[in-house]
Every structure is written in structure tokens, then in C-alpha cells.
């Protein structure tokens, strides 16, 4: 198992996703002899999981069943242990495309945080690219490295525990792209420029507040970046529902008696079942994420 | 004053500089590194310069145009004819000015932005009588004929405006921007990328890409977990843009099978990426109208493995027929291209004050080098036919393994039949993503996929994109926004039950039963 | 630190102060000024104080609750029992603290906001071990029992937190807000308004108002051109909120006819507005299930004008029957109300970290004063029956004129049949607006209305609402937003052609023919 | 005719809306003996319009027809002569509700601009309210007054030509609500407070830029306003369309010959007509208004 390439079968040491049902899942580390409790009963790794194909339906001890999924960076983002606020796939998608990441890209990132974006970057730049990720919180940096090892992508990433605003990324003129998710990104723009290749590259800064964006844009301009552009992307999910709307009763004279009865509250249920219109609808949930952050992109040219 | 990115293809080997920082493991053991080794070698040069024959993107303000660099070939961009000869040998990201005769001249430095200095507090005293500009149209034409550069003309216009200094800063800026757009012509030459081409197509020819907005494409690539080394099915009618973006993300590692309808696969936008030849070795195509035969195991695809040599006669016929069709389609394409080339050709992305105009065919790029000997043509045609037949058989074999790592659909066809058919070829525990310009077909598709089973975590979604203007004291969302970027349905495949198991947990219906009608409406 | 608006009903006569500024004409000649004169007189008092029996809205942070002010009556709000006695005689907009025993005590001044002073630059050194707070749960309970006020408890918590000073400003603020919410209880008493009640219902009981978001309601009132002096048809199943908002905009001038289904019209939310009695004199109701008879001119509504005295026997029967139904519905309502009253009762609008909980019935307000003599009840019932019969006849007459100035629909019924029927009663050149929680029925309604004719400028729309946090250096859109405010279809009535005129200009189909399928997909 | 109350019949002197078709209309002043050119021919006011019912279909000289509509503030907003950027009905709706306007409300507004909002306010506060509107541009102030007279609402409004930031609204403690649409609203907050009734009222400021909002919110707080809240509202219009999507041809073996033909490009048109799915869709136009301005509301309490 590796987050950077697919495998068919579940193996000892893999990180896998146990899928219980609609939006309900959790990650598990497969261990010879290990077992995992689910609400449907126990999963015994050696007998129930190892050697099975990813995507299989597995029956738990109480007779209920779950699916075991191959861990993609997107599933990991939905299931990872939060050590900080994390970036979700909607923003990650945009960051990846607008930074022009692809196999072979060299990327600098700060902060590592919970590693949500890091996993997605590594997936995209593998097998020949490299991620340099800087995290100022020591425990977080250590935990991230541990996860990268566990997920078999540690050869594609270097984690460093330092303050990017003070000490930069520790590399010069190697990066195709730099990503910043720190409280004062404007303090790190100089370091970002230094990390980018001589011939140029792209930079992205993620900030929740508009004042951070304002300062970052100024700093980018001062450092000679071009194509500075700020955007925001929001996900809107639709639940697919079958909805029934009642047809009103105007007291059609033909069936006068009938219609009178249907206006009686106690019989309205059956009446509504007769006189109603069914349709499929994509329904917005009542509340959704209203803001994650602003994404500011810019280009460093040769000049 | 925008310039742009300059960089060699990032898939080059890691520099020793990085290695010095910290010892690291290499992934040489991975089979796909070996498989694509040929592609890697091409990337050795430290900084790639603009070369003849390169596919590049011209950029002026927010407007992009993809072209191929050819000597002494006129290119029209933003209503101006230009020659790209002088760009050859320069760095990607260089900014040029257009001089007389349409030649490019490198700009030595970023032009000093003519920032407003003296701004009136408000515009209460401005009466617009159309007489505030002292320069006449004739004056301006005269300046242009004298060869005065755009930047200077704009400066002259400002100096000869009687009202400029009384305008608010905001109004001044608008004025300068408008005039600059009209008289200044700085062009940057960029290396193509998914970012640039997706933005360009959405601005210039949204109809050609089923209105697929770039942020929606970004979602598809990420949700589809497109990455090096996988085997991906692509069914698109987006001019090959989606295909190209998938190929970029795969970097020549793994394989892509493009499904197509009609005479042949469409790859006009794919060509604009300027991929190395080696990338195309990992690209296969297969016609939709042979899928049924493939699935049912009838006709040419009766055995699971068909070596190219043993291909039956019938297959041969089909191949040559579809080849004829393709030829015809290509002719249509070229004809269409020529017919349209006299029309207005540019579209502005962000500043669409003039509305969206018709765009020219990007696929002009295909026309180069058609004057070859007829015999050679015939020979090449035969070779191509053979090659095509062989590739189709290889594609069939790849499909028959039914273990694709992903499926990406973005087409003008109804998504439901496509999904129901193509999912058969995808391995379990793999993501699939389908785009549709309309929401309603995806509602149906969602329902049908639930009925089919073998898919979990189905989500129907849309993204909202807002672009911002961030300027000192003048920050706000852009005044014009795209209100439709299309819809995405995505999910994950799992092994399919043939026997219905007895209820319990896992994948519940996910669609709750229609809410019980409350008995009385009176409970307010 | 929120306080709230305090103001007498704005419909008072203009003050002499204003008259002094500039001589102005009065509109005394307008008939509807005279018609509603009774309503105006009540507004003479310069500043209205909170009075016993008033309908008011309690506000704590972003949470609203509508209640009626009654002496020695417990009210539950944000999980606390309170008595409103001490509010009587105070100004609207006053902020109170809850003291021991649930009594209100006026706050002398705005509490000094405990703004963070010493903030750590970041939170890199914070390890969350659950031990950072030195005060134990027992300590806090002890403080509370001593009668220490919430504000002081929060201060103590901050002082006893070992990590507070190391937190970032952002984290400090979050901490304070959370603790304040838990321990401070400042309540402001407001005069009800459409703004407040619409926001309250959307936050607390969206199911009761068909998920109608307040900005959508705002659109309806404006697009419907609801204003004093008009005759408006309202069909809603939004607890009477839409009706109330229409009545507020009409200010007692003109007339409103509420169409209803079932036993009787629902007006729980309408009552929360606390309108003067006179407003209800301009309000009529008519049952949907008698509309067919009214339109076809059969049954009770055979003649265009039915004086109340000449009403036939049958009408009487119907009236009493529907009265029984209403009684029954009211009982259900009360029962439902009691059953729910033990559940969790509050919902936070903006801070929905805990998700949306079930809300209590606002219509509690109806229960007061039920202990009256039985005979009196019977008499009153008879009187009410007579009154209702008379009013229904008057409503029928108003409808039969077929000259309503507007139509507002917001219901759980399918909009198409409602529109097709109710538009018959609207004069030409008048706006109509229909709300639906779902988009699909309005697509159908749009099509059916086009087929019917007699409507122009049909628009199907939705509004997006974003709330912002604007704080020094911490401004951004709110992190949670409502993603569904419902959909609106609106248009303008015109005279209807019975004979189809020969084509030409005016109202074209407005729906373009489905785009021609391009012949070849290959033209990329 | 008055913008504050409906009338049934078209009269001499009325402002009416000539509706030509989908989103195409213009205002006209009805004059005995006057005439108006439309693309469908001439409308003669005396014979074609005066005395007719509003909403009537009127035939023009060339045989084409138009509808004559009663002017609502919303139709006026769509048709008024622009002297400035104007407020549209989506923002106006929110302003009206959040300022709690109703019959009898006294409102102060600045600037008057093209009178788009003014007309909507007047409609809502009639017959007993009053609007004080301040415009610093003299010609605009005069033009607005002229329109109010023409529209028979001049008894409900007072127009003053002065700078609200310097001189305020010219009234004290009379307003239930104040609306600001000026470049530096923070300079007018003190005047807004002064214009509001002693017992309190509501204020709204409309600004396109976030920096204006930031300063305005600070000023509101300094002046003791409460319930300060900023929001943004955007209209999304859906075109109702019948759409057809082609059903792909997988080469069903039953009709092998047939399916082969349909893969021929020249016959694809007819094939698509057979094999396609029709549905109704609410289609977003490609571009829409992305931003008008931020609306900041606040309450002045007694204290």
C-alpha cells in the first residue's frame, strides 16, 4: 500500500479505510493478528482482511458488513486525525491545478499541519517529484513524518521543524511551486521567492481573513511576482431526494363529497397520497461551509 | 503588467542541490519508472527555451491563446497580426511588445505603471459632454502611424484629458485600464499547462468543452485520484482538454484509454499541451460502438486476449472503415476551421465588457506540413491503419482486464448509460467522476447507480468560484462572476453483490424515505 | 455585547419637527388614509414602553425568541427559566441580566468587552492535555451558587487558564466567546418586526416556514410590490409569517385575503407581530376548497354579490363544520406544543456548532386566558361563527371582483395548481410571486404559466446570502452559511388573449428552441 | 398614476412602461396628443393608450403589439435613466426588510443618485412616512425632485443638495432608518446617529469595497451602534430550458447494421433525434453579477 500508487490486495502494514455507510468511515492499520471493533462487530485482520481485494465487502462478527477501501489522499482527508484545521479536497483541487503540480514537480509547503494537503501533493508529484514541508510545531512535524513512513511515501517528502518566516524552507532555487498556510504569509514571501527555481514558478497562499490577503498581495507585488490573483472556492453538495408535494383541493364540484372529506384533517394523509406530485430533487442541505479561506496565486518570472 | 511562469518540464530528475539537504531514498524499484524511462531523458536540459514547433500560449492581460511557434507564420491575437519568429530561443515567460510589421520585441523591463497621482475626492463636478478629450481620433491615428508606442499614446491621452485629474482614483484607474487595453500590446509567451488551457477554453470556447469550468475540472482530477502509474478510462467530448489534463497528471506513467464516439477521438486541446511523443505511447483509444461486443464477448472480441497478428479479417474491415470516417471528420474539422478563421477571434476572460465573442479554432495547429508526396501519404496511411488496428486491440485487452484505476466522464452524452457501461471496466475501490453541464441528468444517474449497486459514497456537487480584486482600499469580489460551472457526480466502486445480502449495515439506501407528510398543516 | 432597537411604531403621524424643516403636502385625500384612521390613533404615544400583554422578542447573542409579556409567568429561553415582570414599563431595546430566581435586572451600561491583551504570536507551544484550567467544575458551581455573575466567572476562568496567554488572539477570542455564552446571560427585549421574526423562524423552526429564508422573504415583499392601500392575495403554509410580513408592509391600509386549506387559516407567527386590532379588520380568509364553486359560480357563490344577510342555509352548515375543524386543529396544536415543551428548546443562528436542535412551539402565546365561563364561551363561539360567516362572504366578494393587486404564494402545496387558479383573481399589470422550497416544481409551474398566457416577464431565481465577520484584522465571510434559501418564480399579469393573435412581437416564447445538436462532435 | 398606489386606467401625465418582450421595455410619459415610436410602429397616446386598462395589449401602427404596464418601483429600477450606478431590487429588498421599513417610517438617504432606491423606499413608507434624501451633485438632486413630482410622490419626499459628510441630513432625531451609499460612509455615521430618533433606529451602509466596510464598522462601534452585521446578497437567475442529451451508441448487437450506420457522422443527426433524452432544466446563464456591494446594518439603541 502506498498513497502514491494503487495495489489490489490488502497487506500487513497497510492503512485501509473501513467504510460503514453513508459518510461513516474510519482508517485502520492492518496488522497480522490485529483486530478492529466496529458497530457491526469485530474485524479480524488476519482472517477477514489480509489477502482480500480492496473494495471487498467484509462480514463482521455480528453479521453486519463493511467495505474495506484503498486509502486515497481524498479518503485520508476525510478520516485523518486533526492536529490543526485542515484543508479539504475542494481547496486542494484548486491549489493543485493552479500551482500546476504534476509528476516531477518540486514543492515547498508550510505548515505541514495535519498533512491533509501534503498527502495530496505527494500523490500528484510522485514518482519523480519531491515535497519539502516545514512545520514549526515539533510534535506535529514528528507525527507527520511518522504518517508519511506508514503510508510509504517518505521517500517523496522531507519534513523540517522550523519557522518558515524566520528560516525559510531550507532550500534555494529548487521549487516549482510554494504553498503557504501560515498566520503571516507576507513574512514568508521572500523565502518563497528564494525557494522557487531561478527560471520561475508558482506560489499560493491560503488565508481565512481578507486582511491577510491584502498584506500578502502587497508583499507579492513588492517581491516582483506577477499574475497575482485571489479566489475563493466553495463546495455545494446536493442530496438527491424523492419529494412529494400535495395537490391542493379546490373543491372540484364533480366529487364534492369526496373533496370535503379530504379537507378533514384526520383523513389528509391518505388524501395527500392520492393527490400529490412526486419528483426527484437535488436538495441543498440547510447549512454548509460558508468559508474556508482565500487562495492567492502568483507567478515568479525569470526577471 | 503580468508576466508568466518559466520552467523546464518539472518531471526532470531531482537536482543534487536537494540531495545535499538530506539523504533520501529513490523509488527506482517501481516498475513504472522503468516503463517511462524514455520520457524522462528528454527533460535533462536545465532551462527550456521557446523552440520552433513548440506549442505555446500567448497571453495579453487576461486573454490567452494557444498557438504553435512557426517561422514566418502570421498569428492573429487580440485583433493584431503577429510573427513569433523573434520569440524563438527566448525564455518562457518573456514579455514582448508588438512593433511595426507585427514583429515581437523583448521588453527590457516591466513598464512603470502609470498610477494616478492627483485624484479628485469625488466626481461631483464632472459633466460628461464628450468633449473632455482634446486629442481627436485623427490625432491618435497619426501618432500610431508615426510608430509611437502604445504606452506613450496612453500617456498623451491622459495629458490631453481635461477631466482626468478631476476623476476619482477609481475612475482614473478604469480610464487608464481601458486606454491601455486599446493602445498597449504586451504579449507574454507561456508554456501550456492544464491551468492555462482550462482557463483559456472556458473563456474562449466554453461550448467546445461542455461549459466545463476550470475549477470543476480541478475537482475531477483530484476526486478521480489521477496520478502517475494508474490506468484511467476517459470519456469526454471536451475537445481533448480533459484527456490532456489527465495525461499531464499522469506524466507519461501508466495508461489512459480514451473512449470515443464517431469517427475518431478528438484531441485538438490535447495537442495544445505540447506533450512529448512518449506520452502518446501510453494513450489508447476505443470506440464506444464496439463496447457492447467487447462486453458480451461477441464478434472480434470473443476471446479475452487477441494478439494483433491473429486479428480476424472482419476487424480489418472495421478498422479501415473507421479510418475513412476519421479522415472525413478531419476534413470537416479543417474546413470548419478555415471558415471561422476570418471571424472575430478573441475573448477576454475577466473583462468581458464587450461580451463573449466567437473564438477561432485552436486546432489550426494541425495544419502544418501538409504538402507531402502523395505516395508517401498512401504509405503513411497504411502504416497508420496498421498502427491503429494494433492499438485498438491493445486497448481492448486493457479494457478486458476490467481493472481500471479510475473513470472520468465529461461529455455531451447522457451520463447514465455511459456510467452504467463503463463502470464494468473499473476495479473495486477506485474513484469515478462524471461531469455534466446540467444537474437533472445527474439526479437520474445517481438513482440508477444506486439501483445498480457496486458504488458507494455517491456525491452530487457543484463548486462556486469567486474571483477577487485585491487592491489597496479597493478590494472586493469581481463584479462579473461565472454562475454555472457544471455539476459533478462522484463515488467509489466496490465489489458488487450478485446475491442480495440480508440488509444490515454498510451501504444503506443513503436516500431517506420521503418525509412523512405531517398530518395537519396547522401546527405552526 | 448586543443591544437592540427601541422605537415606537413608526406608523405614527409625522412630528412637527419635520414639518418645520420644509412645508409638505399631506395625502389626506387618499381614501385609505380615512379607512385606516382608527389604527393611526393608537400610535400617538411618543415612546412606547414594554407593556403587559405585549408580544415581544427576547434576544441573547444571535438567538431570538418570541413571547408574550405576562406577569408571574415562567418563560424558558436558552435553557433558563425567566420571569419578564421586571421588564414591564421599561423601554424596548433594554438589556437585562438574569439574576437568581430568573428575574430580570436592567444592565446599567454595556459590559466592558474583555478584549484579549497579551496574545501569543502563535500556538506552537500549546499542548492540549485537558489540564490547562486550574478551576475545577466544582469551583465553578460554587461560584455560581454564591451568586457570582457570569461576567465575573468568565474573568476568573481566563485568569485561571495556564494557556490563555499563550494562545493566538484568534484562539483567545474563540475561548472567551465560548465561555461567555456559557456563563453570561444578557437578554434584550425587542419589538417584533418582519426582520426579527423571519430571522428567528429560519433559525429555530425552518420546517414550519417551508425553509423560507429571510432574504427570500425580503425579495417576495419587494417583487410583489406589497404596500399600503393595495388588495393582496396570500396563500401560505409558513405559520402565518408571510401573512404577517405582508400585513406589516400594508400598515393596516388596504386589504389582505388569506387563502387556506384545512380547518382554518394558520396565524401563529402573525400573532407574534403584535399588530393592533385594527389591522385584523383588513384581513380576510377564504378556504381553498370553495374556490371552484366561487369560480364556476355554483353553490353559495352563484351571484356575484352576496350580502351577508341573504346567505343561504348551506353556507351556514359549511361554516360551522369548518369551525369544528378549526377547534380540533387548535387542540392538536396545543397538545403538540405541550408534548414538545420538555425537549431542548434553543437554536443558535450563527454559531451552530452544536447543530440545529428542535425548537419549541412559538404558538404557546395562544394559551393565555382560557379559564372563562362556559356559557360565555358558547356565546362567544356563536358570535365568532356569525362573524366568520360574514367575513367569508366579504372575502368572496373581494375575490369575485377579480382585481387583486398582488398574489403571494409560499406553501407546501404544489405551486402549479395554486398559481393557475389564484391568478384568475388578480388584475392585469400586477406582480405575483411564488416561493417553493424546491426548484423542480417551479420549472413545471413556469412552463404551465407560459402555456396559460396572461403573464409576462417570468423569472425563476434564487438568492445567495453571505454573512460576514468584520473585525480588525479578522474579516472574512462567516464560516457557516445557509446553502438553501428556496426558489422564487415571479412575473407580471397582463390581459389574456382568448383568441390567439397572429404572432409578431411582444411576448416571444422566451424559451429558445433546444440548441441544434452539432452534427459532428469532432469539431473541437 | 402614483408610484405609491395602484390605479386601473392609463391617464394623461402618467409614467407607464411599454413592454416589448423578454427583458425589453422602456418608460414613457403619457401625453394627450403625444406619440411614441417602437420597433413595432407608433403608439398614439390619445387613441391607443389613454383610458385603456394597465396591462392591456396595445397594437402599434405596424400591426405588432406591446403591453402597457403600471410603473412599480421595481419596473422603474429596470428602466430608469442612469445618472449614477444604481441599486437593484435584490439589494433593495434586503435594505427594506433589514431597515424595518413600513408605512409611516421616516427615512434619511444619501446619496439620492438616480433615485432607484428612493422610489422603493417611498412606496414602502407611504402614505404616512417621509423620505429625506440628500444628494451632493446639484443636477442630480434637481432631476430627482423632478421625477418625484412626475411620479406623484413628491409629498412623501424632500430632496436636499448638500454634502452629507459635512452637513448631515439637515434633520435631527426624526428618522427610523438611515441609508448611506457614499464613498466614505464612516464620515457620515455621526450625522446618521443624529438623524435617528432619540429612542433609536436602524442604519444601513452600502459599499462595494471591504475596506469601506471595515472603516464603517469601526465608526459604528465608536458611535455606540449595536447589532452591527455585514452581509452580501446575490441574485441567481435560472433560464428554463428544454434540453436534449444524446444517448450513446454502444453497438447493440441486435441491430448491428443499424448501429453501424448511426456511427456514420453524416447520419448522426437523425440518430440523435431517435436516441436522445429530453428534460426541463433551470440553466444558469454563463455570467452573472458577481458583486454589487456589502450591506452593513446596525441598530442605535436608546442608550
TrEMBL record, chains A, D:
One Pfam family matching this protein: GCD14
Protein residues bound to S-adenosyl-L-methionine: 114-117, 135, 181
Classification via InterPro entries: SAM-dependent_MTases_sf (IPR029063), TRM61_C (IPR049470), tRNA_MeTrfase_Gcd14 (IPR014816)
Record-level GO cellular component terms: nucleus; tRNA (m1A) methyltransferase complex
EC numbers: 2.1.1.220
Keywords: Acetylation, Methyltransferase, Nucleus, S-adenosyl-L-methionine, Transferase, tRNA processing
Catalytic reaction annotation: adenosine(58) in tRNA + S-adenosyl-L-methionine = N(1)-methyladenosine(58) in tRNA + S-adenosyl-L-homocysteine + H(+); an adenosine in mRNA + S-adenosyl-L-methionine = an N(1)-methyladenosine in mRNA + S-adenosyl-L-homocysteine + H(+)
Biological-process GO terms, alphabetical: tRNA methylation
Keyword Methyltransferase in record: yes
Family annotation (SUPFAM superfamilies): S-adenosyl-L-methionine-dependent methyltransferases
Keyword Acetylation belongs to the record: yes
Domain called tRNA (adenine(58)-N(1))-methyltransferase catalytic subunit TRM61 C-terminal: residue spans: 64-300
GO molecular function, one term: tRNA (adenine(58)-N1)-methyltransferase activity
Subcellular location: Nucleus
Entries under Gene3D superfamilies matching the protein: 3.10.330.20, Vaccinia Virus protein VP39
Similarity-based family: Belongs to the class I-like SAM-binding methyltransferase superfamily. TRM61 family.
Subunit record text: Heterotetramer; composed of two copies of TRMT6 and two copies of TRMT61A.
Its job: Catalytic subunit of tRNA (adenine-N(1)-)-methyltransferase, which catalyzes the formation of N(1)-methyladenine at position 58 (m1A58) in initiator methionyl-tRNA. Catalytic subunit of mRNA N(1)-methyltransferase complex, which mediates methylation of adenosine residues at the N(1) position of a small subset of mRNAs: N(1) methylation takes place in tRNA T-loop-like structures of mRNAs and is only present at low stoichiometries.
The protein's name in its UniProt record: tRNA (adenine(58)-N(1))-methyltransferase catalytic subunit TRMT61A
Automatic annotation (TrEMBL), chains B, C:
Biased composition (Basic and acidic residues): 317-329, 354-392, 507-524
Start and end residues of each stretch annotated as Disordered: 304-392, 499-524
Gene Ontology biological process: tRNA methylation
Keywords: Nucleus, tRNA processing
GO cellular component, one term: tRNA (m1A) methyltransferase complex
Record InterPro entries: TRM6
Localization per Swiss-Prot or TrEMBL: Nucleus
Primary location class: nucleus
Compositional bias per record (Polar residues), positions renumbered to this chain: 341-350
Family: Belongs to the TRM6/GCD10 family.
Identification of the protein by name: tRNA (adenine(58)-N(1))-methyltransferase non-catalytic subunit TRM6
Organism: Eleutherodactylus coqui (Puerto Rican coqui)
Amino acid at each position: 500500500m502506498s498513497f502514491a500508487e494503487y495495489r489490489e490486495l490488502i497487506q500487513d502494514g497497510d492503512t485501509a479505510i473501513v467504510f460503514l455507510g453513508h459518510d461513516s468511515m474510519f482508517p485502520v492499520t492492518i496488522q497480522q493478528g490485529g483486530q478492529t471493533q466496529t458497530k457491526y462487530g469485530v474485524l479480524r485482520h488476519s482472517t477477514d482482511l489480509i489477502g482480500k481485494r480492496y473494495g471487498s465487502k467484509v462480514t463482521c462478527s455480528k453479521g453486519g458488513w463493511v467495505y474495506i477501501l484503498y486509502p486515497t489522499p481524498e479518503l485520508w482527508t476525510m478520516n485523518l486525525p486533526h492536529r490543526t484545521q485542515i484543508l479539504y479536497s475542494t481547496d486542494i483541487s484548486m491549489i493543485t491545478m493552479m500551482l500546476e503540480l504534476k509528476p516531477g514537480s518540486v514543492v515547498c509547503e508550510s505548515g505541514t499541519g495535519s498533512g491533509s494537503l501534503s498527502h495530496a501533493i505527494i500523490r500528484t508529484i510522485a514518482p519523480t517529484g519531491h515535497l519539502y514541508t516545514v512545520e514549526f510545531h515539533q510534535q506535529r512535524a514528528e507525527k507527520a513524518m511518522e504518517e508519511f513512513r506508514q503510508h510509504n511515501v517518505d521517500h517523496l517528502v522531507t519534513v523540517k521543524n522550523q519557522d518558515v518566516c524566520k528560516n525559510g524552507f531550507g532550500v534555494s532555487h529548487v521549487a516549482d511551486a510554494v504553498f503557504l498556510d501560515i498566520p503571516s504569509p507576507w513574512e514568508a514571501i521572500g523565502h518563497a521567492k528564494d525557494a522557487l527555481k531561478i527560471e520561475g514558478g508558482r506560489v499560493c497562499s491560503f488565508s481565512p481573513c481578507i486582511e491577510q490577503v491584502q498584506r500578502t498581495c502587497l508583499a507579492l507585488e513588492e517581491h516582483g511576482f506577477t499574475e497575482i490573483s485571489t479566489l475563493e472556492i466553495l463546495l455545494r453538495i446536493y442530496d438527491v431526494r424523492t419529494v412529494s408535494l400535495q395537490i391542493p383541493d379546490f373543491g372540484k364540484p364533480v366529487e364534492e363529497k369526496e373533496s370535503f372529506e379530504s379537507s378533514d384533517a384526520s383523513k389528509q394523509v391518505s388524501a395527500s397520497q392520492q393527490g400529490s406530485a412526486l419528483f426527484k430533487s437535488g436538495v441543498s442541505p440547510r447549512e454548509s461551509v460558508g468559508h474556508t479561506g482565500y487562495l492567492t496565486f502568483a507567478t515568479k518570472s525569470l526577471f | 503588467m503580468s508576466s508568466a511562469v518559466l520552467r523546464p518540464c518539472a518531471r526532470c530528475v531531482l537536482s543534487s542541490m536537494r540531495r545535499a539537504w538530506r539523504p533520501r531514498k529513490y523509488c527506482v524499484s517501481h516498475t513504472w519508472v522503468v516503463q517511462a524511462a524514455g520520457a524522462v531523458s528528454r527533460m535533462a536540459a536545465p532551462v527550456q527555451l521557446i523552440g520552433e514547433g513548440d506549442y505555446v500560449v500567448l497571453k495579453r492581460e487576461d486573454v490567452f491563446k494557444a498557438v504553435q511557434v512557426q517561422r514566418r507564420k502570421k498569428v492573429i491575437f487580440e485583433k493584431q497580426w503577429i510573427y513569433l519568429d523573434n520569440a524563438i530561443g527566448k525564455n518562457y515567460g518573456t514579455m514582448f511588445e508588438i512593433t511595426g510589421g507585427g514583429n515581437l520585441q523583448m521588453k527590457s523591463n516591466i513598464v512603470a505603471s502609470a498610477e494616478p497621482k492627483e485624484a479628485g475626492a469625488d466626481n461631483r463636478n464632472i459633466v460628461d459632454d464628450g468633449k473632455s478629450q482634446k486629442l481627436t481620433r485623427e490625432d491618435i491615428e497619426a501618432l500610431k502611424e508615426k510608430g509611437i508606442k502604445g504606452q506613450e499614446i496612453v500617456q498623451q491621452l491622459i495629458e490631453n484629458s481635461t477631466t482626468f485629474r478631476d476623476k476619482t482614483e477609481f475612475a482614473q484607474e478604469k480610464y487608464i485600464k481601458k486606454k491601455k487595453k486599446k493602445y498597449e500590446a504586451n504579449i507574454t509567451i507561456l508554456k501550456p499547462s492544464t491551468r492555462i488551457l482550462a482557463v483559456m477554453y472556458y473563456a474562449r470556447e466554453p461550448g467546445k468543452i461542455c461549459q466545463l469550468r476550470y475549477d470543476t475540472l480541478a475537482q475531477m482530477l483530484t476526486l478521480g485520484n489521477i496520478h502517475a502509474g494508474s490506468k484511467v478510462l476517459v470519456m469526454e467530448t471536451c475537445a481533448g482538454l480533459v484527456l490532456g489534463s489527465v495525461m499531464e497528471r499522469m506524466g507519461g506513467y501508466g495508461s489512459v484509454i480514451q473512449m470515443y464516439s464517431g469517427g475518431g477521438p478528438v484531441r485538438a486541446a490535447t495537442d495544445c499541451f505540447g506533450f512529448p511523443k512518449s506520452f502518446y505511447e501510453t494513450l489508447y483509444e476505443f470506440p464506444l460502438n464496439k463496447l457492447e461486443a467487447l462486453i458480451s464477448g461477441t464478434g472480434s472480441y470473443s476471446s479475452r486476449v487477441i494478439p494483433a497478428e491473429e486479428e480476424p479479417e472482419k476487424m480489418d474491415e472495421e478498422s479501415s472503415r473507421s479510418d475513412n470516417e476519421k479522415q472525413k471528420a478531419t476534413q470537416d474539422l479543417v474546413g470548419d476551421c478555415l471558415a471561422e478563421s476570418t471571424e472575430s477571434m478573441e475573448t477576454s476572460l475577466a473583462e468581458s465588457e464587450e461580451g463573449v465573442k466567437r473564438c477561432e479554432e485552436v486546432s489550426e495547429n494541425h495544419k502544418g506540413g501538409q504538402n507531402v508526396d502523395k505516395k508517401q501519404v498512401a504509405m503513411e496511411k497504411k502504416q497508420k491503419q496498421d498502427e491503429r488496428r494494433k492499438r485498438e486491440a491493445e486497448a481492448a485487452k486493457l479494457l478486458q482486464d476490467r481493472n481500471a484505476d479510475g473513470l472520468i466522464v465529461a461529455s455531451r452524452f447522457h451520463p447514465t448509460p455511459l456510467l452504467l457501461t463503463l463502470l464494468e471496466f473499473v476495479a473495486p475501490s477506485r474513484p469515478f467522476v462524471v461531469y455534466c453541464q446540467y444537474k437533472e441528468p445527474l439526479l437520474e444517474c445517481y438513482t440508477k447507480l444506486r439501483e445498480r449497486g457496486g458504488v458507494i459514497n455517491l456525491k452530487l456537487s457543484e463548486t462556486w468560484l469567486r474571483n477577487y480584486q485585491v487592491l489597496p482600499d479597493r478590494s472586493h469580489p469581481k463584479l462579473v462572476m461565472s454562475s454555472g460551472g457544471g455539476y459533478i457526480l462522484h463515488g467509489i466502486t466496490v465489489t458488487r453483490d450478485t446475491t442480495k445480502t440480508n440488509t444490515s449495515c454498510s451501504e444503506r439506501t443513503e436516500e431517506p424515505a420521503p418525509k412523512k407528510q405531517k398530518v395537519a398543516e396547522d401546527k405552526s
